Amino acid sequence: MLDKRRQYHSDDSSDEEEAEDSTAIPGQRAQFTVGLILDRLPSDILEMFSWQNWEQLSVQNFLALCKKQKKLKVIDIGPMDQELLPVLQKDPDIFKNMPELLSVDMYPDNLDRLKSCQKLLQDKPNIEYLNVCESFIYGEDVPSDLHDSSTRPGLITRTLFSHMQPWDKCDPLKLKNLDLDTIDLRYSPDTWLKVIKFSTLVRLEIRNCPGAEALFARLMDNHASEWPALEAFEGLLDTLTNLEDIHIVVSRMRALPRPSAITHHRKTLTSLTVHTEKDSFNLHTYSQEDFGIICIQCTELRQLSILFPEVTLNWLDKFLSTNFAVFLGHLGKLPNLITLNIRRWPSYPVPPPPPLPSNPSREFFDSYQSTLKNMSETYEHELQRITQTIFESSDVDAKAKGYGLGNRSRLSVVAWGGNGKSRHHSGKLKQIPFIRGLKVDPFGQTSLLAVRTIWRMVQFAEPESDILNHSIYDLHDVHESQGL
After folding, report:
1. Do the Cβ atoms of 69 and 41 come closer than 8 Å?
2. Torsion sign (Cα): 230, 231, 233, 234
3. Model confidence over 276-315: pLDDT tens digits?
4. For 344-375, what is each residue's pLDDT tens digit?
5. How confident is the model at residue 467, as a pLDDT?
6. I want to staple 404 with a disulfide (CB 3.0 to 4.6 A). Which of 244, 265, 409, 461 is the partner?
7. Confidence band (pLDDT; 50, 70, 90) for 206?
8. C-alpha angle with apex 118: 93 to 173, nearest 5 degrees?
9. Which residue has the higher pLDDT, 403 or 276?
10. What pLDDT score does 221 carry?
């Protein structure tokens, strides 16, 4: 590699080419490191291997992984540095020789990867978990017939499940978990519902899928061609029974699902996310009465992510008379709540930063950056104060009503917001989590303290906090999430 770089730099190349080569070096080093690790690992000890799918994986490393780690239970097929199918055709039994493989994550970004995924499905018809995320949108050429239409199946379905045709007579996949991301489901009754036996599913996750109401309506045994999205989803919740996790994150929906559709699962429901919006500036919030119904009936909830009413942080001493305080009061009806994610960022009125002059000096820039940093620190400090109040209120409720852990409630994590921008705060915000901590005074007395932490550390402090993953993880934004 060093010799090649010497030869490259001695050539009369443009600065642009040199810059492109230098950016490729970290990726080459990563592939070399992964290959070295796979080569040194003992055979058949890995159960799971996952690769960040916004970077290409070396085909040679993928083949080495499959051949040496035959006890893998989870595998990814995503962007790679060269075509995979021709290599698989030279070793047609590579997937068949992995007897314990049960979970597959597919991120097809071109036809070669799509056909490679089809080969895996054909060789492993007994998988239990399938995740299909359409990734053609990140490539240069997006086929016009990628998704199903009224005239024929789209490129994705007719390629992935080509070995199962004719679908009307096929033996459908009997999955336990199915995740679909960025798949148009408007005509899914003629494709997905034929190749997958939805009645065997324990978990179904649908993200960024237009036309999902058609799937919901057919799962309800309703054969109408048109079905309003909200009613279709509510009908699906009414049809299903004993759900443990419900995560609803929907854009362009005219209202929230009615509380009775959620409380229908009150005996088993332990994790609930509800976040719908008409557009970026019109977010739906449950009324005090509806939120109270959910809290009163769904007493088994352990994780909750929901939009609270607006609150201004510097009203901390007065907000008990606001709608926000009423929502907090309803939380006292959830004796098992461990993780709370309040999706709406509180507002905090601060003076705007000084305007930029036409010829700013270095001193001005230093002062400007210091002002922005102070604004951010002040905002987080106010968040900590209100989070402290939430923890303390939950402990008071637990002691008064005799639930929790004796001297305090079970509430351990309070997280604010998710990815994106806030209309009330300059700059781009990330989810800000706080965990329950302790402070010790000079006399050795301990008291509660809300401790700001980073998102990646929350899972170590409290295992039952995976609902935050639904709230924050966004593939399109992950490159800018390094600080979380």
Report:
1. yes
2. positive
3. 776 656 678 899 999 999 999 999 999 999 989 888 776 5
4. 888 877 666 667 777 777 777 777 777 777 77
5. 85
6. 409
7. confident
8. 100
9. 403
10. 67
- In this prediction the pTM is 0.68
Q: How far is CA 103 from its chain centroid?
A: 18
Region label for 39, one of left (φ > 0), alpha (ψ between -120 and 50) or beta (otherwise): alpha
Three-state secondary structure of the chain? CHHHHHHHHHCCCCHHHHHHHHHHHHHHHHHHHHHHHHHHCCCCCCCECCCCCCCCECHHHHHHHHHHCCCCCEEEECCECCCCHHHHHHCCCCCCCCCCCCEEEECCCCHHHHHHHHHHHHHCCCCCEEEEECCHHHCCCCCCCCCCCCCCCCHHHHHHCHHHCCHHHCCCECCCEEEEECCCCCCHHHCHHHHECHHHCCEEEEECCCCHHHHHHHHCCCCCCCCCHHHHHHHHHHHCCCCCEEEEEEECCCCCCCHHHHHCCCCCCCEEEEEEEEECCEECCCCHHHHHHHHHHCCCCCEEEECCCCCEHHHCCCHHHCHHHHHHHHHCCCCCCCEEEECCCCECCCCCCCCCCCCCCHHHHHHHHHHHHHHHHHHHHHHHHHHHHHHHHHHHHHHHHCCCCCCCCCCCEEEECCCEEECCEEEEECCEEEEEEEEECCCCCEEEEEEECCHHHHHHHCCCCCHHHHHHCCHHHHHHCCCC
Whether residue 259 is preceded by a cis peptide bond, meaning omega within 30 degrees of 0, is no
Token readout for 421 is 């921008």
| Amino acid, res. 203 | R
Cα distance between residue 389 and residue 448, in whole Å? 10
- The tokens for 287 are 């009324």
> Which neighbouring-strand residues pair with 390?
none
Spatial neighbors of 137 by CB under 8 A, at least 6 apart, are: 182
The token pair that represents 285 in the structure block: 């919030």
The pLDDT confidence band at residue 222, using thresholds 50, 70 and 90, is low
The 8 Å CB, 24+ separation contacts for 2-7 are none
Structure tokens at 401: 């009503």
Q: How many residues does the chain have?
A: 484
Compute the CA torsion angle 330, 429, 422, 432 (nearest 10 deg).
Answer: 10
Whole-angstrom Cα distance, residue 96 to residue 98? 5
